[in-house]
Amino acid sequence: MEHITLLLGIVIITALVFDFTNGFHDTANAMATTISTGALKPKTAVAMSAVLNLVGAFMSVEVAKTISKGLVNEEGIQPEVIFAALVGAILWNLVTWLVGLPSSSSHALMGGLVGAAVASAGLGAVNGGTLVTKVLLPAVAAPIVAGAAAMLAAKVTYKLGGNVGRKTSAKGYKAGQIASAGLVSLAHGTNDAQKTMGIITLALVAGGALAPGSNPPVWVIVSAGMAIAMGTYLGGWRIIRTMGSGLTDLQPQQGFAAQTSAASVILASSTLGFSLSTTHACSGAVMGAGLGRKGGVVRWSTASRMFIAWGLTLPAAAVVASGAELVMRTGDVGVAAVALFLAASCVAIWLISRRQVVDHSNVNEVQPAAAEEPGVVTTAMAAVTVPPTLAAEAAAGTTAAVTDEALKATIPAATPAAPAAPAAAV
Questions:
Q1: Distance between CA 271 and CA 61 in Å, rounded?
Q2: What is the pTM of this model?
Q3: Which of 9, 76, 246, 371 is the most buried (most CB within 10 A)?
Q4: In a 10 Å sphere around its CB, with 0-12 CB exposed, 13-18 middle and 19+ buried, how is residue 190 labelled?
Q5: What distances in angstroms separate CA 249 from CA 79, 162, 188, 242, 278, one per listed residue?
């Protein structure tokens, strides 16, 4: 193994912690629809996803090369910059997990890396062309392409299965969901596990332990795959609930269409070396599948909050990372302060999450919506509604005979005026 300094060791451990949070943050991408439709039990689903994430980590290193060689210039980047980037990414992952929003771990890492690099070496440290073509454009295209493919696939599956019995169709598509969920998990391992491989490789190059342009060593691939698999097994139950039932109500046919479309998009991007957000692809596919069924709806209030989180991911992680990099310029004291801040923040977020626990036992429970107050229009219509007695008589055809009496009955009687007091005697 390469010569590892204390600071470099801290950076590597922090990178594996990020990989762990990436695992439980993105479990929903592969297994939310499978769990919500009942195709697999929750614990079985996350165990299957963990194994396939580990296998997928060994299938390719193209995305890792994009991060370690293409996004930022390796020259002049110090291990402190990598540490600051990981701090921003981890905190954003935990905050969005706490509120149950499926945001992109990949973009959190990219934003943290860009923010820390700019704070350390200026704008020239970031390769703008790579950022636009391999990060930003796929971020916009992925949910659109996956959503359109899933909507079309859902429509086709319903049309082809129209003459098949409902129970038989549901059973067959549940089996298809299990296969497609496995494909998504495999694709997730080939894409997201590589991001941590790339960041550790970049740290090793920055610390002088590897020559510039090196591929990830075998021990980096193994450790990154193990970390993301363990995180996946724990399951990000809060985000699974949002993806499974918070965005739309899915039937097995829709779940199969969503997962197959998302897996195809993710595997294609991994082959091309695009640092795609699996969250964007899977969320777009779920919404597309929701619209692919006749009468299906998407809960746009939840989707809007998710879109806002997507837009904030890159800049929020970048701001936190740049602040952490500035603090670490003070030396070892600054590094220790940032490490303590990260640890304290993680513990605080975990304690807050214990106030309302979401796990495998209640992940499919739908939270009751709050009752809405009647609006002005509803109140006005109620005020001029035909009285119940009159409405019933009209339906019976006897309105003409009793209209006057019925109307008089609805008008409050006037209160007779009090008699005038007798005039005072003169």
A1: 9
A2: 0.75
A3: 246
A4: buried
A5: 45, 19, 24, 11, 21
**Which backbone phi and psi does 102 adopt, to 5 degrees?**
-75, 95
Q: How far apart are CA 364 and CA 244, in angstroms?
A: 8
Residue 172 half-sphere exposure toward CB, CA atoms < 13 A: 10
- More confident position, 319 or 165: 319
SS3 72: strand
As a whole number of angstroms, the distance between CA 207 and CA 166 comes to: 60
Confidence of residue 163 (pLDDT cuts 50, 70, 90): low
Please name the amino acid found at residue 299.
R
Strand partners, 72: 126
Tokens at 406, concatenated? 């019925």
* Residue 402 pLDDT level (bands cut at 50, 70, 90): very low
How many C-beta neighbours within 10 Å does residue 4 have? Answer: 15
In three-state secondary structure terms, 74 is coil
All residues at 6 or more sequence positions from 226 whose CB lies less than 8 Å from its CB, including other chains: 54
β-sheet bridge partners, residue 126 = 72
Three-class SS state of 126: strand
HEC profile of 313-358? HHHHHHHHHHHHHHHHCCCHHHHHHHHHHHHHHHHHHHHHHCCCCC
Cα–Cα distance measured from residue 331 to residue 333, given in angstroms and rounded to the nearest whole number: 5
Nearest to 261 by CA among 243, 278, 244: 278
Q: Which two tokens stand for residue 128?
A: 């703008």
